[in-house]
Amino acid sequence: MRRFLTALALILPAPLTAQTLGRIDFPNSGKPEAQAPFLRGVLLLHSFEYEDAAQAFRQAEQADPEFAMAYWGEAMTYTHPLWNQKDSVAARAALERLAPTASARAAKAGTPRERLYLDAMEALYFGRGVKAKQDSLYSDAMERLVAANPGDDEARAFYALSLMGLSQGTRNIPTYMRAGAIAEEIYRRNPLHPGALHYIIHAFDDPIHAPLGLFAAREYSKIAADADHAQHMTTHIFLALGMWRETVAQNAIASGPDTTVWRPGHYTAWHNYGLIQLGRYDEAHRYLEMVRRNLAAATNAGRQNYLLTMRAHYLISTERWDDGVADWTLDAPLAASGPRAIDAYATGVSQLRRGKQRDAERTLTRLETIARANQADNLYGANPRVPQILAGQLKAQLLWEKGKRAEAIGLLRAATKDADALPLEFGPPDIVKPTHELLGELLLADGKGADAQTEFLRALDLTPGRTLSLVGLERAATAAGDTAAAARARAQIEDNWREADPALVKRLSQRSGLQ
After folding, report:
1. Three-class SS of 177-211
2. CB 37 within 8 A of CB 63
3. How far is CA 269 from the centre of its chain?
4. For residues 151 and 203, what is the distance between their CA atoms, to the nearest angstrom?
5. What is the distance between the alpha carbons of residues 413 and 208, in angstroms, rounded to a whole number?
6. End-to-end C-alpha distance for the chain, whole angstroms
7. Does the N-terminal or the C-terminal CB of the chain have fewer CB atoms within 10 Å?
8. From residue 352, how far is each of 153, 394, 426 by CA, in Å?
9. What is the dihedral of CA 86, 88, 89, 95, to 10 degrees?
């Protein structure tokens, strides 16, 4: 989090500058000296800058130790609904510093409205049942808060966020649409509200609904320019629409100006995926090597997860099977089953493409073991069915290499049905080789151009602008005699690869095109 913003800029109706977190109206009973850090904390909370927000709320607590809403704010930093994370121990400790019991905490609320905010915390962190039940109790409490205070846009914003958290890290389209509609209402009243824009993006950041969030993506990074997460969040829409240059640029800003200290993570993973789609493979390789060097392998599970998936996307999407990256021994003992499956899949395909069929078969056995465990990591969010689908894809490719073409295609058709049944994804796909894209490639190799074209079109519905799917579409449409579709695909490839590596530009310019 870059710290250029003064407290004054948070609360005075001055014109926006490049250093800002947005603007909100949150009346409360705190002392005047607690207002600036409290409001700063809420603004940071809306942009998921949780550590900085917690620090701001603690400053408000110090300024006014009896200010109940400051402790509410700190407790809020320990729940991350869209990441399916909650630290109830830390949140309870914060609330118990205010007072040791629910009734004593409620007695310290400055107004009936603030008491309802505290009631929501009791439901979230002290409610009976497992996390999903507590999340439901919390969302119900926020709904009651909104009903009792219809003019409270902060309550309404956090209620919208609570709705998206009900599906425990996956996407329930009707609920997400409802949350997006609530966030849009807030935006119409306050176009500088960071939560409104942020939650609009999250509600609509799948490939089907992303056009509805494009305006929010363009605005959010401006009105919350000092929140690194806001710079990244724009690319939830840009990537879903195949806007690769914008994806690369915004994640570079979010990752920080000193690229030499970048580590594997959410922002750098999206940055590298965008570079690959742009045909800037050499640059992606350099960044991949750098983030690997900068990884503290034994201490951070999340970064280990991202190193595995970054390497996998690089191998699968560049098809540089002989690259030394393929033979890296990655030290990631804390990595979750989803990323480990993704890494195993990419390793197996690389082995197969290099003629190491026995190694690929051993890797398939490892991947199937991960799939049978059927576990997903809440920090990473991979769907538990992803390892099973990846194992099926690798098995199909091994069958293909053995000449069992019909069996391989049949297995992949079943895999596409399984993949289509998953909730819509955002970001670089967990199924690192999209199933429809792979099926299209095998159908094309089997001389079924029209069928392959159908699969590539479906792949592009789910991963718009993905270069390998466009390459496949051009080939398939050409084979099927659909010259217009082939020309459209080639035009998109040429746009993606305007600044590509010279070898790719040369390949594209050859008379045979990408054949």
Report:
1. HHHHHHHHHHHHHCCCCHHHHHHHHHHHCCCCCHH
2. yes
3. 10
4. 22
5. 22
6. 46
7. C
8. 55, 9, 29
9. 130
Q: Is residue 210 packed enough to be buried (19+ CB in 10 Å), middle (13-18) or exposed (0-12)?
A: buried
Alpha carbon 26 to its chain centroid, in Å, reads 29
Residue of 229, 255, 250, 226 lying closest to 40 (CA atoms): 226
Is 296 exposed, middle or buried, given 0-12, 13-18 or 19+ CB atoms closer than 10 A?
Answer: exposed
The helix or strand, by DSSP H or E, that contains position 508, with its residue range, turns out to be helix 502-509
Question: What distances in angstroms separate CA 85 from CA 46, 128, 187, 333, 463, one per listed residue?
Answer: 16, 17, 27, 21, 27
Query: What one-letter code names the amino acid at 15?
Result: P
Q: What is the pLDDT of residue 382?
A: 58
Identify the bridge partners of residue 86 per DSSP, sorted by sequence position: 79
Checking phi first, is residue 499 left (phi over 0); if not, alpha (psi -120 to 50) or beta? alpha
Residue 79 DSSP SS3: strand
Mind listing the pLDDT tens digit for each residue in 149-179? 999 999 999 999 999 999 887 889 999 999 9
Distance CA 496, CA 464 (A): 12
- In this structure, are residues 412 and 438 in contact, taking their beta carbons and an 8 Å threshold? yes
Q: Are 242 and 274 in contact (CB under 8 A)?
A: no
Question: Region 221-228: what's the mean pLDDT?
Answer: 93
Q: Residue 483 and residue 468: Cα distance in Å, rounded?
A: 18
Give the model confidence (pLDDT) of 98-151 as tens digits: 999 999 999 999 999 999 999 999 999 998 899 999 999 999 999 999 999 999
Please state, in angstroms and rounded to a whole number, the distance separating the CA atoms of residues 266 and 231.
12
**Tokens (6 digits) for 245:** 């240059």
Q: For 199, how many CA atoms within 13 A lie in the half-sphere containing its CB?
A: 34
- Give CA–CA dist 319/387, Å, rounded: 21
Q: Which band of pLDDT confidence, cut at 50, 70 and 90, is reported for residue 445?
A: very high
Which residue in this structure is represented by tokens 């003064």?
6
Largest CA distance in the chain: 78
Do residues 354 and 306 touch, judged by C-beta distance below 8 A? no
Structure tokens at 429: 């796909």
